[in-house]
């Protein structure tokens, strides 16, 4: 495996055999892989597995109550079989599944919005900023002065607090992050950002092997950023991170293993993770294909400032 020593590869293999797949041979596609419940002509589309996830490892298909989801004091894993969709308040023809919310202890929300025919968004509450990322379908984003932007898969929009806007979609799935903006004295308010992942340059990651793109400016006007991180099979984080920042993560492609605290979780496309401040965290990419995840991170603010 690229990035692993022989001993590390052996230990990970032993862990996967003993902990993740007891008394069962590994599926052909890797420890998270099973055949989808149905075939689809769009199965090669970008981020297809986020909206058409594998619901349960094949060796556990006869355990109807099984879920990989976990909720603990300092982290949570929400896997697709646990996501519960319900109408989004004041939205039209849109269903939402909250993956991260302040009920966990976070200072932000992250949710999936399934937009249906004729769907329309609602405005967030006062002083709430919004980030939208398209994982399936397309949407029209209308902003001030009647300007409209088309957002296709892998496109995103950052919408500053108290900005009039409207999302109109027929069939689409969006990842939406919202938080109360932490104003910083002496700096102008952030601006509307429209972009796509491929437009963003790869950034240097000293001491690490993963590829990194940042979707928002790094200037102090912005109190969070969104990272897109790519790992080839066998690559892993060198730093075992422990820090004051919170994270919200959605795995867009691939599969691997995530350490959160003293727990080791098999993860795959469609899984969402919340990481509280100072929880030990580490990721290794496994399987046959690239891993890509979207990562929320609060930045540019003194931790003594309340983020509630």
CATH superfamily: Jelly Rolls
Examine the coordinates and then state which fold CATH places here, giving the name of the CATH topology: Jelly Rolls
Number of domains: 1
Any low-confidence stretches, pLDDT <50, length ≥5? 14-41
* Number of DSSP-assigned strands: 18
DSSP summary: helix tally: 2
How far apart are the termini? Answer: 42 Å
Question: Could you please describe the fold and organization of this structure?
Answer:
The protein is mainly beta. The chain is 6% helix and 40% strand. The chain has 2 helices and 18 strands. It has helices spanning 6-20, 48-51; strands at 70-72, 75-78, 86-87, 92-100, 108-120, 128-142, 148-151, 155-159, 166-180, 193-196, 211-214, 224-231, 247-253, 255-260, 263-268, 272-275, 281-286, 291-298. The strands form 3 sheets. Strands 3, 4, 5, 6, 7, 8, 9 and 10 form an 8-stranded antiparallel beta sheet that branches. Strand 3 and strand 4 form a beta hairpin. The longest helix has 15 residues, at 6-20. It starts with 5 loop residues before the first helix and ends in a 10-residue tail after the last strand. Mean pLDDT is 87; it is low at 14-41. Keywords: Signal. Residues 228-294 form the Cupin type-2 domain. This is Cupin type-2 domain-containing protein.
């Amino acid at each position: 495996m690229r990035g692993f020593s022989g001993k590390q590869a052996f230990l990970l293999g032993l862990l996967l055999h003993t902990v993740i797949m007891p008394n069962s041979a590994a599926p052909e596609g890797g420890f998270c892989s099973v055949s989808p419940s149905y075939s689809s002509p769009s199965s090669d589309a970008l981020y297809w597995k986020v909206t058409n996830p594998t619901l349960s490892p094949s060796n556990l298909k006869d355990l109807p109550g099984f879920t990989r989801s976990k909720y603990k004091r300092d982290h949570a894993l929400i896997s697709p079989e646990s996501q519960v969709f319900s109408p989004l308040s004041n939205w039209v023809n849109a269903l939402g599944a909250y993956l991260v919310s302040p009920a966990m202890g976070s200072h932000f929300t992250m949710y999936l919005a399934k937009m249906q025919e004729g769907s329309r968004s609602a405005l967030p509450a006062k002083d709430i900023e919004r980030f939208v990322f398209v994982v399936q379908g397309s949407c029209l984003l209308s902003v001030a002065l009647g300007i409209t932007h088309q957002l296709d898969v892998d496109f995103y929009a950052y919408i500053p607090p108290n900005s009039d806007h409207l999302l109109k979609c027929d069939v689409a799935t969006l990842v939406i992050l919202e938080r109360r903006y932490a104003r910083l004295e002496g700096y102008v308010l952030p601006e509307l950002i429209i972009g796509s992942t491929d437009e963003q340059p790869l950034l240097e990651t000293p001491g690490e092997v993963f590829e990194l793109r940042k979707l928002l400016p790094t200037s102090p006007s912005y109190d969070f950023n969104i990272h897109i991180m790519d790992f080839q099979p066998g690559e892993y984080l060198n730093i075992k991170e422990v820090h004051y920042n919170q994270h919200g993560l959605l795995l867009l492609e691939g599969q691997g293993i995530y350490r959160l605290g003293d727990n080791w979780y098999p993860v795959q496309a469609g899984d969402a993770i919340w990481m509280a401040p100072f929880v030990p965290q580490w990721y290794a990419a496994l399987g046959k294909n690239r891993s890509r995840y979207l990562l929320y991170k609060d930045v540019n603010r003194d931790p003594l400032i309340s983020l509630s």
